[in-house]
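A further point concerns the way the authors explain their paired sequence and structure data. For illustration, here is how one protein appears when written out as sequence plus structure tokens:
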Amino acid sequence: MGSFMAKVIALLAFRNEEKYLPGFFAHLRDYVSEFIVLDDNSTDRSVEIVRAQPNTTLLERRTQEPHPDHFFEVDNRRTLLQAALARSGQWALACDADERFETNFLKTLSRLPETGESAYALRVRDLWDAKDQYRVDGCWNEKAKFVLLPLLPFADYYPSHALHTRWPPPNIPCPDTNILDFHLYHLISLRRSDRRQRLEKFRTIDPHEQYQSWLGYDYLTDEKELEVTAIPAGRGFAILPEDAHLFV
């Protein structure tokens, strides 16, 4: 692992992500100083996989009563950010197990200043039916996610059990001018079956579209205006052996 001008900590909350976790860790291991991850009641091999990872702190949420996916999303993020602050981290890289960062972006992490005031976003690119193309029609070409944020103390965060909130606390600015020209690739959209499963998941946990009233969830599988484009040369992500099974 190379030396870092700033301490970048990868943060992840997960639940039953055994098929994505090996590749997630392998993808980021050479670019971050450590991982802090939180298991939200997994019942598969996820925890076993995490325990085998170096430079990784595992936090766990165990509840007696079952709860739907994303129910503790805000609480989990708050817990992870507080843990990173306690470790004297300088920057956080907010992650999902099924996302892979453009390699060019990961290389910039070694050049981050030691301090920052604002968060930075990447363009989200949803892989669609192939590992080398993503969807670009309509809202699919407009998605951005604030994933790189300075670790600054915060008092307020978002309401518990809310959905689709940002990772950065409200006291950290997230200006549109901080959307970087790098891609964040979403793997969960690759297969039609996974897209359908994702739609049904959000229909179950947000049946009245309370948290996404401006868009709803049907767009996740609607292909009436489908348009895809190839990942530009030199703008991809490393497909490592740990992820090979995802693209068979």
